Amino acid sequence: MEHDDVIIGLEIHCQLNTRSKLFCGCSTDFRDDEPNTHTCPVCLGLPGSMPVLNKKVIEFAMRVAKALNCSVLKECDFSRKNYFYPDLNKAYQITQYDRPLAEWGKLMIEGEDGERDIRITRIHVEEDPGRSVHMGTTDRGKYTLIDYNRAGVPLIEIVTEPDLKSPKEARRFLNKLRATLEYLNVFDSEKEGSLRVDANISLKGSGRVEVKNISSYKGVEKALTFEITRQRNVIRRGQVVARETRHFVEARGITTSSRSKEEENDYRYFPEPDLMPMQVSDWVEGIVLPELPDARRERFMQQYGCSLEHARTLTGGLKLAEFYEQVAKADPDLAATWTADYLLGELNYRDFSIDAMPIVHFMELIGLLKADTITDKSGVEILRIILDQVKNGEKPEMPASIVNRLGLAKTGGDEITDMVRAVIAENPQPVADYHAGKGPALNFLVGQVMKKCRGRADPGHLNALLREELGKMQDGA
Amino acid sequence: MAKTLTFTPDDKVHAFITTIPEVSYEDGPLSGVTVAIKDNISTRGIETTCASQILKGYIPPYDAHVVTLLKSAGAAIVGKTNMDEFGMGTTTENSSFGPTLNPCDPGRVPGGSSGGSAAAVAAGYCDMALGSDTGGSIRCPAAFCGIVGLKPTYGRVSRYGLIAYANSLEQIGPMAKDVTGVSRLFSVIAGHDKRDSTSVDRPYIHTPNPSVKGLRIGLPEEFFGKGVDPKVADTVKKAVSVLEQAGAEAVPCSMPSMSHALAAYYVICTSEASSNLARFDGIRYGPGGDLRKSWHEEFSDRRQERFGKEVRRRIILGTFSLAAGYFGRYYQKAQTARQMVRDDFARLFGEVDMIAGPTMPSIAFKLREKSDPLQMYLSDILTVPANLAGVPAISVPCGQVEGMPVGLQLIGRHFEDEKVIDTAFAYEQGAV
Questions:
Q1: To pair with A446 at 20 to 30 A between CA atoms, which of A145, A227, A382, A465?
Q2: Cβ pair B268, B168 in contact under 8 A
Q3: Which of B63, B158, B276 to mutate to test the interface with A (most CBs of A within 10 A)?
Q4: How many Cα atoms are found within 13 Å in the side-chain-facing hemisphere of B280?
Q5: Which residues from A are below 8 Å from B327, CB to CB?
């Protein structure tokens, strides 16, 4: 797909993982609890209740601002965004409007044509509304239940300039942002609904469309890809792309026009009179940032000799990076290959995060590979066995025990020589072909030996051995 | 040790929305003192309606900070008083439960919006009462009913639990028969509360002192000019001369920002109100709704039906002021005018220590006399400046016109509530 004319900007809402909510002391750790059990007069918006700012939230947001190279405003304040919605208990959301916490930052991504800075327009802090649970569809459902456990959970909204050129870049930006937030220890990407994205997308010279309601990383790429195709088709038919808001329907991978009047709100912003303006720009200096993804990537290359590709992959998530650093103690090279190339694939396939792989098991596996006890093929088999056991809720078996149980130890010496001789004896025609100079015959013979030993032979060693035995035959002839 | 008293007033003036027949109270500085609470202040387990049908049946699960303080001071909370719906009015006629009558003349209004609180004290049903003052709602009924009422410095009393009408303007304050009573009640409710981010750590530990020697009292011409009943103006000037005899000095002065104050006030209070009252959708609070209708349809109908006319008027005005395209012309301009009022006070308080004038431009209106909302708004002209600037102001009875009480208003510097109380006390002592 040509992307020269695609213009994308993102608005990302991330839940900050402070222990208590933005304006009250209620816990944010509600996901396993009954609805409406993490509430108080403040987050329920009861008449007479008043917000009190949780300073920790501002501190977390400032870490993000600093990491994204933003400038923090000398004075910022909160505003009310007024609109009616059942899950918005006060009928206004406390957010930041014309004086946000921070402005004008940047984040570097691996773009379509090399590394590039994506500019950040602003970062502001706001409260999450409650959650509506519709019984049936929104229009025709019988009723809607509201859970206020989420109401008042702190969010930051990060707005980018329209600097992204393709859906792939948008996904990369999000991955980089997620990694950065994780490194800053302000965000837990594994919590359901912890990141939500609205995307603005237009084709050069065409109307801008806002796609709302994207709640997964993969969804962003899908929604934008769909939207580009849709807009191109509109233009191809000689029509004009309407400036509008569309909703992403995740299950169908499409966007639909939202004609609801609800979307055409005048939010009537005005400063929140119950909160004082904040002067926090002085805090910036005191914030000590941890090592961030780019720095860690450089270090992985220097310290462990990782390739750029491996280093980028392995630093793409905080837990993944920490996992690698543990395993690298056994052997940095093998650990990089086996984590980035094999383990991640197996995890993705099962929709697992890195947590699923017990590190002790993985380190033992690397040990077995390093000692040349097993072949790569057996290594992958062992990985799969362990992850399947985890998936089934069983206690994962140690790799050495799997090797013993299934007899996966590399074969060699007399055993393999016997097998090679047996295969030569059993396959006179391919042997003759080999001697007649037909190269592929050797591959067939290798395959036969591999079959006999169930892949436990080292391919290079086996090849040499076969040549040697076949050579002996010729010499003897 | 917990004690109880019975409270069964013959509420002829309809001061109360809710009374509590059996009241228990503890030991403390206000032990056994009967205190009535305006019905926009949240009381745990006691219906709190703001005199609105939309909150009928709402029983708060928590106490306002001031209520917690009163309980621990041993006060006997005897009931919830009538008011203009959500505090929107100057007569207490805008109550959905019917008007309160003025104990001095049942044919007249008690003033508002804390009319029930003022009437309950004036009629002798209770010793003291809490009101709230957004644009004069404590001082006006205090003046009309002949009692003392203080609007404290903004931030000195926690608003936590006060059902907001206009957050940036309003304060809870004490009302009592005399200055000493107001001072006692204020000493209990003033102080910092971490649940109200606008609250300030300035407790009130003070006994009224009647000395005004050398006090410079400014008399802004705007407080005695057009729109003010000359008889009321004369009565107040006489009251000031009592203070002069006690050693104070009266200084003529001017507050030019007064010409914008009322308009600014009504834009700001209605803007904030339109947002504050949006949560009352007829479903969360009050009697249940019709579940067969869609949410939007149902809450539009309920709001139309359960908000009174004045409340609806102010919500619409405020919504308009905040609307895109009008915000700059109304809300922002009002903030500029508000700053002019603050600047005027700052300038004046460089020259004088206290500002004096009538609390209200007239004596209490007859019931239904002010049927035109604009006429009603105009009567707030002398009280709104103190709210716009956040400075303390008290109303103390200073004589009568046509047999009805007149209030002397004293306005002081930020956090000089003590001096305001002392000056009122000096007048009260000197007038005896």
A1: A382
A2: yes
A3: B276
A4: 31
A5: 268-270
Please compute the mean of the pLDDT values over residues A141-168 and round it to a whole number: 91
**Domain count within chain A:** 3
pLDDT tens for residues A183-206? 999 998 888 888 899 999 988 888
Both tokens of residue B387?
């709210």
Q: Is B329 on the interface with A (CB under 8 A)?
A: no
Domain assignment present for residue A1? The answer is no
Question: Has residue A139 got a pLDDT over 70?
Answer: no
Q: B3-210+357-431 in CATH: which number? A: 3.90.1300.10
List CB contacts of B398: < 8 A, sequence separation 6 or more.
B235, B236, B238, B239, B406, B407, B408, B427, B431
pLDDT band, residue A261 (cuts 50/70/90): very low
**Tens-digit pLDDT profile for residues A404-448:** 787 777 766 667 777 888 888 888 888 888 888 887 888 888 888
From A246, A268, A286, give the residue that closes a domain.
A286
From B352's Cα to the closest Cα of chain A, the distance in A is 30
CATH for A434: 1.10.10.410
- A103 and A135 fall within a common domain: yes
pTM: 0.89
With 60 as the cut, is the pLDDT of residue A477 above it?
no
Q: Are residues A389 and A266 in the same domain?
A: no
Q: Which DSSP state fits B330?
A: I
Under an 8 A CB cutoff, do B324 and A268 touch? yes
Do residues A219 and A315 both lie within one domain?
no
Which residues of chain A does B171 touch, with a Cβ-Cβ cutoff of 8 Å? none
Chain A residues within an 8 Å CB radius of B271? 270
Q: How close is the nearest chain B Cα to the Cα of A283, in Å?
A: 20
Min Cα separation B416/chain A (Å): 22
* Structure ipTM: 0.95
Q: Is A106 exposed, middle or buried (0-12, 13-18, 19+ CB in 10 A)?
A: middle
- Would A391 be classed as within a structural domain? yes
What are the tens digits of pLDDT across the range A55-112?
999 999 999 999 999 999 999 999 999 998 889 999 999 999 999 999 999 999 988 8
Whether residue B164 lies within 8 A of chain A, CB to CB, comes out as: yes
Pick from B64, B197, B275: which is nearest to A53 by CB? B197
* Domain assignment of residue A320, given as a range: 293-406
Concatenated DSSP letters of A237-274: TTPPPP-EEEEEETTTTEEEE---GGGS-----EE-TT
Per-residue pLDDT tens digits for B26-54:
999 999 999 999 999 999 999 999 999 99
Which of A383, A406, A429 is where one domain is finished? A406
- By the CB < 8 Å criterion, does A48 face chain B? yes
